[in-house]
Amino acid sequence: MPGKVSMMRSLQDYDISPETGFLPPEPPLRRLLNPYFDPWESTMDDFNGLLLAGRLRERVRKLPILNHKQLKSKPEYRRAFLVLCMLSHGYVWGKHEEVSESLPPCLAIPWTHIASHLGVCPVVCHASVVLWNYKPLWEDGPLDLSNLAALTTYSGSVDEAWFYLVTVAIEAAGAPAIASIIKALDHVQANDEKALIADLTHINSCLADMNVALARMSEKCDPYVFYWKIRPYLAGWENMADAGLPLGLIYEGVDNLWDAESDEYADMSHLSEAERMLQQYRKYAGGSAAQSSLIHALDVAFGVEHHPTGERKARRPSNAQRLDRYNNMPPTNTAVELTGKRHSDTLATMERTRSQEEMKPNRNNFIQTMRKYMPREHRHFLADLEKAANLRPFMLNLQAMEEDLTEQQKSLLEAYNGCLDQLKAFRDKHVQIVSLYIVNQARKGPNIPHGGFAIDHTKATTNIKLTEKAPDTDSNSEADDAPSKPNILYPQTALSTSPSLSKSSSLHKLNNLLPTLGLAKFVDPESKVVRGTGGTNVMPFLKQSRDETADTKIALSQPVDIQAPTQPVSQKISWTDWLRK
């Protein structure tokens, strides 16, 4: 059966290396050597100490606004982006400090320009802390955990470095599979079954190596340290109302009213003061494993379809949905989300610049939205791969010919299913890790009442709500005598009411101008929702993704006689051994 004609360009055109995959072909820069950027690099030299001492914000406010155009190469842009990710998220979330609702111009302006150059969002992402955040210990050594070190971390801990490096090792292990995926497209087109079996066998081996690397997460990354000390800094500004950022983050000095696609300024004369303030806010998801281009590429190549969480059965999308990869997702501009007013229709296009009409949509909006956080070239690779993918139609055609299959064709189906088994095993392990590292930790709570994060030492009521004081309010009210309330900087689950808002903050002013925003909502302490750093309700999403991978396998009507394994005697095992199962 002839497949689709491959429209893929060379991997290098997508900034992908046949050897290192989505990792850079050369190790990331360890430092920006241009003295012009010494203010950034010298701050990074003291980063962990400044954060620990609670003086990072003080240092950052003294930084000059540097011109991103002084960066001369892609490796320099990547290094600058990583540096600004570290400084910006450290500034916003702090250490034993209240969350900052705004980012100063010295960070916001260059970060936004550099993100635009790389085709990512100005927020911490998989590319920044994984793809561009490692160094080999020996230049001629392998890209595996025996030869890797992290360039920088928020906490300065071994646990955080190991968390990033395991993910680097997974990317390196899966890198050779990308070239085999491209070969498989051509071999399907040529109906070369023998070569296709070799391609799938190689992909299976890469997936097995990815599983081995993932299983090592527990060796040097403690679940408690990860959840309470590391994970908060990987959060973005979307779905962060209970962390003190209900509207997102203000990027000071960045003109949100400029539309780069139409090259026009918006007419703001009709907007109220509150609506103009809303235009300053941006919402972005944080770093997430769902931003890995490698996992997306494997899903696309094998035809794994992901549907909205809770909807396993696919519904035929409308024409309008087909044209919009990010349909029904919240915009990054808070004003558009809350008021429904757009200053330009082009804001709704969400970078629809590459013939999206021909693109096969993946129905899970969250997964598709995560592509915005990938480097531009990698995103383009996935879009082109979706058009060229022909492996699953080829396998479905073999399934239809079941009674007339040759032994080679049966082996081909087994090789295809074997790869899906490995991909499902990867997702099984991921579910186990998330259960141990996130869900269980959220249920247990911190070892100390405030989780090691910010404590509001001012006196406040137990259930804080923003209300304007009447002119004759007695200053010696009951609220003044109420005990102080611990204020967790980034509540991993809903542990208390939302943080109090400073009267000098933009949020406080907006709450008075637009009380319908409900910025002082009570957070239900019985809430069972545990969100990932990408902002999604993590466990249902991961479990469904795993099950959808299993559903993709090609089932033959003829049953296979497999002897049921004997059930082992139940015994207690360590969580390290459990992860290795």
Short description:
The chain has 581 residues and is mainly α. Helices cover 43% and strands 3% of the residues.
Can you offer a commentary on this structure?
This protein is mostly helical and 581 residues long. Helix content is 43%, strand content 3%. The chain has a three-stranded mixed sheet. A two-stranded antiparallel ribbon has the order 2-3.
Mean pLDDT: 78
The proportion of residues forming helix, as a percent range, comes to 40-55%
Low-confidence parts lasting 5 or more residues at pLDDT below 50?
258-265, 314-329, 341-361, 452-500, 516-527, 559-570
Q: How many strands, which pairing sense, and closed or not: the largest β-sheet? A: 3 strands, mixed
User: Can you tell me the overall shape?
Assistant: globular
Beta-strand residue percentage = under 5%
Say what oligomer this is. single chain
Distance between the termini: 39 Å
Separate helix tally = 22
Taken in chain order, the helices and strands follow as HHHHEHHEEHHHHEEEHEHHHHHHHHHHH
Question: Which secondary-structure class do the elements indicate?
Answer: mainly alpha
Rg over CA atoms: 25 Å
Instruction: Give the beta-strand count.
Output: 7
